[in-house]
TrEMBL record:
Taxonomic source organism: Methanosarcina siciliae T4/M
InterPro entries named in the record: AAA+_ATPase (IPR003593), ABC_Ni/Peptide_Import (IPR050388), ABC_transporter-like_ATP-bd (IPR003439), ABC_transporter-like_CS (IPR017871), Oligopep_ABC_C (IPR013563), P-loop_NTPase (IPR027417)
Keyword annotations of the record: ATP-binding, Cell membrane, Ion transport, Membrane, Nucleotide-binding, Translocase, Transport
Subcellular location: Cell membrane
Keyword Membrane: yes
GO molecular function per UniProt: ABC-type nickel transporter activity; ATP binding; ATP hydrolysis activity
Biased segments, Polar residues type: 322-332
Oligomeric and partner information: The complex is composed of two ATP-binding proteins (NikD and NikE), two transmembrane proteins (NikB and NikC) and a solute-binding protein (NikA).
ABC transporter domain: residues covered: 8-253
Region of interest: Disordered: 320-339
Protein name: Nickel import system ATP-binding protein NikD
Length: 339
């Protein structure tokens, strides 16, 4: 097993609002290992993007962050802002979703990449421009297009520019937040393959934040499933997809076109008014009486597979169908056997 590159320990992120405290992340403990891609999966609004920004301390001033975020033995939450700026981009890169909103519309794309080298490496204008051109070529864009402005690029090409920006300084970790959002299927696969190839080539690590479980399953090593601000399942990607231990993960899988295309019933709770007990129990088809009363802990099941569910704690594994045929399952594989 490779050593942790980034360790998140009992992270809580709370926003002050006029309606009271909003718990965007609660009790998050995760690690990203050297050379690993971890997929963070969940519906819109569950707190995925908040976690990505918290790692780099890019949240607004009304956010309160508690816990530890340790990158190569350095607790990022304890660093003064001046030192934290040196980590952003150089040690940990980030790709924000919606590149049209992130890129400066009045600066050429080449200049926006070049500024990264001028700030972090202190190189001259000419050398910075050359480095920017090399990065554009690396992501499949002719370096001459560095003179073009963001509005002159298609959605897929803008995502390539964002890849160039995120990887410009060859960081040890890349946080990619919904890098394929809004793209057609073919372009989505191209961008995912591009990012994956560059990350693997540099032996870097990546946190892939996405709601697209099918896409993540093709590129990540492990999957962490988030629901209503907390992690509900973590495990090796192949194991989570073939043998999910949490009902929410199973429902997400059934929502895929090739797995039944059934939408997850009900609505996710607002982070201002979380339900008592298990946060998924109002939508869960397998809930027990205890689920509405007690909040379950994230516990190990087997082989580094963790889940936050009373069924997995109480029951023994019962295979109800071949592991490769999830759509034929009538219940998760952990439903306890009858006495």
């Amino acid at each position: 097993m490779s050593s942790p590159l980034l360790s998140i320990e009992y992270l809580n992120v709370t926003f002050k609002t006029s309606k009271g405290p909003l718990k965007a992340n609660e009790g998050i403990s995760l690690e990203i290992r050297e050379g690993e891609t971890l997929g963070l999966i969940g519906e819109t609004g569950c707190g995925k993007t908040t976690l990505g920004k918290a790692i780099l301390r890019l949240l607004s001033g009304n956010a309160k962050i508690e816990g530890k975020i340790v990158y190569r033995d350095t607790d990022l939450l304890s660093l003064p802002e001046k030192k934290m700026r040196l980590f952003r981009g150089k040690e940990i890169g980030i790709m924000f979703q919606n590149p049209s909103a992130c890129l400066n519309p009045v600066l050429s794309t080449g200049r926006q990449i070049a500024e990264i080298y001028r700030y972090h490496e202190g190189v001259g204008k000419k050398e910075a421009e050359e480095k920017a051109g090399e990065m554009l070529e690396l992501v499949g864009i002719n370096s001459l297009r560095g003179h073009d402005y963001p509005h002159q690029f298609s959605g897929g090409m803008l995502q390539r520019v964002m890849v160039a920006i995120g990887l410009a300084l060859r960081p040890g970790l890349l946080i990619a937040d919904e890098p394929t959002k809004g793209l057609d299927t073919d372009t989505k696969v191209q961008i995912a393959e591009l990012i994956d190839g560059l990350i693997r080539r540099e032996n870097a690590s990546m946190l892939l934040i996405t709601h697209d479980l099918e896409l993540a399953g093709s590129f990540v090593d492990r999957i962490a499933v988030m629901y209503a601000g907390e992690i509900v399942e973590v495990g090796k990607a192949a194991e989570v997809i073939s043998n999910p231990k949490h009902p929410y993960t199973l429902d997400l899988l059934h929502s895929l076109p090739g797995k039944g295309f059934r939408t997850v019933s009900g609505q996710a709770p607002g982070l201002l008014s979380l339900p008592q007990g298990c946060r998924y129990h109002p939508r869960c088809s397998f809930r027990l009486e205890v689920c509405s009363q007690v909040h379950p802990a994230l516990r190990g099941f087997c082989d580094e597979h963790l889940t936050r569910c009373f069924l997995s704690e109480m029951g023994r594994r019962k295979e109800t169908a071949p592991r490769s045929s999830l759509t034929e399952q009538s219940a998760p594989s952990y439903v306890e056997e009858e006495a």
